[in-house]
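Structure first, sequence second, as always.
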């Protein structure tokens, strides 16, 4: 049996305990790169798409109930992998975007990830309309971050009360 706290156990005794090494069942397989159910390993992140849409706050709660939080996409290669994963799940062509883990709710105009780290602005991440102001727009009103299917999977700020699908992230085992 494997437990997160003690690793592999034999009859509830840690395999590293003295005298236990004589039991062949104490051999350990690596758990590096594995994700807990219902998450899938996508590049370097454990990712799960929730089947229901939520507002931003409820999306964070829903991710928390599966052992994660909203996904952070701060690496361009990983960002591309996650977009490919979303499209492979057959959920790509809905006009409803996905909540991801960023906002400027703490300080207007200072976009940060939910872990407090600063967010890169502009392309390739943020949407850039042919007409009008580039994203993020509507300061003071739209404070939560979505991965917009209408903007070719670019970041877009929107109302936190809007309903969006959700991409959760959890730590690999």
């Amino acid at each position: 049996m494997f437990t997160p706290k003690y690793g592999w156990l034999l009859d509830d005794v840690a395999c590293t305990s003295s005298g236990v090494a004589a039991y062949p069942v104490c051999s350990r397989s690596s758990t590096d790169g594995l994700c807990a159910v219902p998450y899938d390993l996508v590049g370097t992140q454990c990712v799960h798409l929730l089947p229901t849409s939520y507002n931003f706050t409820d999306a964070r709660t829903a991710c928390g109930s599966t052992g994660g939080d909203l996904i952070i996409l701060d690496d361009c290669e990983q960002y591309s992998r996650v977009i490919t994963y979303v499209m492979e799940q057959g959920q790509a062509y809905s006009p409803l975007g996905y909540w991801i883990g960023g906002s400027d709710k703490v300080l207007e105009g200072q976009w940060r990830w939910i872990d407090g780290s600063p967010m890169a602005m502009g392309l390739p991440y943020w949407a850039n309309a042919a007409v009008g102001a580039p994203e993020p727009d509507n300061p003071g009103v739209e404070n939560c971050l979505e991965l917009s299917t209408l903007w070719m999977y670019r970041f877009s700020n929107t109302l936190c009360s809007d309903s969006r699908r959700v991409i959760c992230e959890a730590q690999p085992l």
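Margin note: The domain at 32-170 is CATH 3.10.100.10 (Mannose-Binding Protein A; Chain A).
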